[in-house]
Write a structure and sequence with these properties.
By secondary structure, the protein is an alpha+beta fold. The chain has one domain (6-131): Nucleoside Triphosphate Pyrophosphohydrolase (Alpha-Beta Complex). The chain has three helices and seven strands. The longest helix has 13 residues, at 49-61. The radius of gyration is 14 Å and the shape is globular. The N and C termini lie far apart (32 Å).
């Protein structure tokens, strides 16, 4: 990681379906990019990556989450700069979504449907990592 690396944190937010108890994954729609992704965002100066990831989940989805296992870190280039996003599994425990400037919609989807809806291929691997961390593969 270089000094100009953008640091971010995110979560694969999940819950047990109220219908059948199976895991559902929350995806966020960002109108600025017209994409579907896991909740994530840039860290504030000096912010712990896990604290930042949970803050971003709360800001983007309205849900408070309990962190679980660390998931693979994503490395890619954004706007010509290297970016590193540290991810965790996180179970939604309470809250509700209110559309905001950054995120206008969320969806709770089965893992297979979430994989299909995600815009970036790198985000699909995180679904598999979540299921592995929950011993559901």
């Amino acid at each position: 990681m270089t000094d100009d690396t953008i640091r971010a944190g995110g979560c694969v937010l999940w819950r047990r379906s109220p219908i059948d108890g199976r895991p559902e994954i929350c995806l966020v729609h960002r109108p600025k990019y017209d994409d579907w992704s896991h909740p994530k965002g840039k860290l504030k100066r000096g912010e712990d990556p896990l604290a930042g990831a949970l803050r971003e989940v709360r800001e983007e989805t309205g849900y408070r989450a309990v962190p679980g296992a660390p998931l693979p870190t994503a490395h890619y280039v954004a706007n010509g700069r290297p970016k590193q996003v540290d991810y965790w599994a996180a179970e939604a425990v309470e809250g509700f979504f209110v559309p905001n400037r950054e995120v206008d919609r969320i969806l709770w989807l089965s893992p297979a449907a979430a994989r299909n809806r995600l815009t970036q291929a790198r985000d699909r691997d995180l679904v598999d990592a979540l299921l592995s961390s929950l011993n559901l593969t």
